[in-house]
Amino acid sequence: MRKWIGSVVAIDESARAGALPSAFRYASALAVITSLALGAPGCGGAPAEPGDSGTEPMDGAPSDGAADDTGVADDGDAMTVDDGSVAPDAAPTIDSGPEPCSTPGAIEMVACGMCGTNTRFCDAAGVWTYGACSGETGVCVPGSTGNVACGNCGAQAARCTATCDWMATGTCTGEGVCAPGTRARDSAGCPVSQTREVLCSSSCIYDPVGACTDASCPTAGALETVACGMCGHQDRFCTSAAVWEYGPCGGEGGCAPGTLGAVSCGMCGTQMTRCLDTCTFMPFGACTGEGVCTPGATQRTAMGCPAGQTHVVQCDAGCGYTVELSPCTASRPVDVILLLETTGSSNADVTAALPVFRTRLIAPLLALMDVQVGVAYFGEFPNTPYGSAGDRPFVGGIEPGTSASAIDTALAARPAFMGNDAPDAAVEGLSSLVGGALAATSLPMTCSAGRAAGGC
Question: What does the alpha-carbon distance between residue 90 and residue 73 come to, in Å, rounded to a whole number?
Answer without folding.
Answer: 6
